Amino acid sequence: MNKRSLIVRFKWILSVSRRFSRIDRKGRSAVTSRLATLGIAAGVMTLIVVMSVMNGFQLSFIDAIQEISSFHIRVNDLPLEEEIKLEEYCDSNKHIKSYTKVLEAQSLISSQRGAEGAAIIRAVDPSLYYLDQGFYEKVNMVQGTFDLSSGGQIILGSKLARDLGVRVGQNVNLLVLSGKSDVDLFSQDRTFKVSGVFSCGYAQINSSFAFISLEDGYKYFGSEPVVIQGIKIQNVNKDLPVIHALQKEFPEAKVESWRTYNKAFFGALKIEKNMLLLLVALIFVVVAINIYNGMRRLVFDRRSEIAIFSALGAPPSEIQCVFVMRGIITGFLGAFTGLLAGLLISYNTDVVFILASKVMYGLQYLVTAIFNHENLQYISQNSSYLLYASIPARVQGLEVFFISLFGFLSPVFASFAASKNVLKLTIAEVLHYE
Prior knowledge:
6-stranded mixed β-barrel; 17% strand; 16 helices; alpha+beta
């Protein structure tokens, strides 16, 4: 079969398929294909938007944990004499973005008002806030500045500061402090001045983290403090090769990935995302079933045309392609339209949610004004929409590709399955029923 013959066959298949999708046997406009296209577009759009918002919601937690708490890679149990070697190794490795040495202890902080709160105390380099770009972006200073340049200063999480009832300039005391035998368990002399209050995207960090300088850490955490070597890499998803190289270079150290740190929490987020994906993907299943039933009805209604095509010498496989082509067109138009709409909404979720808030407020105000005018003073915009608008949607290319591909293939498979009956029809059977 030459190239010209293939083009001719494709043209007549496309022409007949388009006519079948526009006009039924009675000359009326056929709306089945349009509804199917709208269904696929709605499914693709909804799934892209939902997954993008979910990604933004979850990654705000994950990024805060990785940049502030767990790092991308943690090196523990490293001998003291190896620390300088590790720092030099990190500086020379092109896959590693930054290296941070942290001292950590657990404490019960008390304020001058008598309020108390449990906290994780991190002793860090005073320049960390300005040298680590990821840390700088996630630690949002809501009061004061991240200033640990002089001794006796502390930075508190926003929820922790609120629980203690302290503000910038006031003092707190590390009443109880974990450590070895050379650390006083209880003390009224570990007084720090609050120089700043921060907030991040993860409430657990806001309610339990505090930062002091490395100098104060060595002063109060004892001779054998808990030391964490935090490493951040260029590509967070390519941590395994870096971990393998670190373990080979420092065999005595314990190297831990962000994948295992807070594994239960990250696993719960993944299960939540997969379940949401499964539930929303049922839209495609419903649309595919409707297309399948509609296509079977179309094949039955077009029995006479099928018989004419067969009598004129059209192979059954090409007749089947007429109906499959309809599924291809429906899937392509629906997936492409849904893709564009989904990306447009995902990149403008703040505008969409604010607009939805105003629309809902307007409708509520109108209904109340008509039916319950005396309660107009209690009508206000729903703050939940503003919260949703503050969540940055994260569009992941691979997810968008598979969502669009699934939206395209679902009507194609439905059309193929429904049109298999074409191969079973004979001219004699069709003419007998006509």
